[in-house]
Amino acid sequence: MDKLVDLLKRLLADLSAYRIKTQYYHWNVEGPNFNEYHAFFATIYTAADGDVDTVAEHIRALNAYAPGSFRRFLELTTIQDEDTIPIAIEMVARTYADNQKILASAKAAHTAADELGERGVVNFLEGLIDAYEKQAWMLRATTKR
Question: What is the pTM of this model?
Answer without folding.
Answer: 0.96
